[in-house]
């Protein structure tokens, strides 16, 4: 990313994370306007981090690290925010990894999973735009056959990105559709096949059976497929996102994460909780509705934006 473009994106990231940053910085300012970092202050800091959805384990770890170098010293809110950004970056930077396509797999098959409403279909469209912009041939598979809206939405993204869409009528067998999509993608020499899936969590057994069937039929054609399983999470759900990672890890072998809707919530800190707990790669984050509002995840930029610190 060019320097000017990076600054522009950081501005949008900062704007998108404004609610989350305000939640953190307002609380820190009210507690740490020139104050000694004693046991009580550390406890209050930990509570602030938990309220900001960073999770109990990450909050304790971060408060402990800050305490280790500054205990019983006078600190300002600015010093705490700087230290916090540093500690958040330590947690999220190792998981900020790009979605890397296997050059030996044509197509590289990506299964996109997540509960209904998190933005899976939109995310697929945005990834398609990102990858076609890199000169890759992308094919889309409308595998969420339970929702007519999802099928139509994916067709629109196909038109926008010049990507062919393999779709069938609502209620069709999603595994059979995925099988046909892989066959067609191979025939047409696609670099990337993005497969949408249904996300009904009400009955985990049904969801598990459905996703297992899709994986099984893909492996009939390519033993290594799917090459990536992306779990899309909605930041507005807060700690519920942690539960979703647990469920989908049981259901399928999640290889990476996408966090959407960071701009619509004060709960953006949940990304820290997820990174700390699972250590799964975070490939993309979304801070808006536009196609360019989904970008590869940068841990340092995220940490600074979350803590209200300029680029």
- Strand segment tally: 10
Low-confidence stretches: none
Q: What coarse outline follows from CA principal-axis ratios?
A: elongated
Helix content: 40-55%
Q: Any idea of the CATH class of the largest domain?
A: Alpha Beta
Number of helices: 12
- What percentage of the residues does DSSP assign to strands (E)? 5-15%
Please outline the major beta sheet: 8 strands, mixed
Cα-atom radius of gyration: 21 Å
Q: Widest sheet: strand order?
A: 5-4-6-3-7-8-9-10
What letter string, H or E per element, gives the SSE order? HHEHHEHEHEHEHEHEHEHEEH
CATH architecture of the largest domain: 3-Layer(aba) Sandwich
Q: Mean of residue pLDDT?
A: 93
| Alpha-beta content class | alpha/beta
CATH T-level topology of the largest domain: Rossmann fold
Report on this structure.
The structure is a single chain. The protein is an alpha/beta fold and 311 residues long. The chain has 2 domains: 3-95, Up-down Bundle (Four Helix Bundle (Hemerythrin (Met), subunit A)), CATH 1.20.120.140; 108-297, 3-Layer(aba) Sandwich (Rossmann fold), CATH 3.40.50.300. It has 12 helices and 10 strands. It has helices at 3-16, 18-31, 39-51, 56-70, 77-92, 120-133, 148-161, 174-187, 204-221, 240-251, 270-278, 299-306, and strands at residues 35-36, 74-75, 108-113, 138-141, 165-166, 192-195, 228-234, 256-260, 282-286, 294-296. An 8-stranded mixed β-sheet has the order 5-4-6-3-7-8-9-10, with helices on both faces. A two-stranded antiparallel sheet has the order 1-2. Strand 7 (228-234), helix 10 (240-251) and strand 8 form a beta-alpha-beta unit. Helix 3 packs antiparallel against helix 4 and helix 5 (77-92) packs antiparallel against helix 12. The protein is elongated.
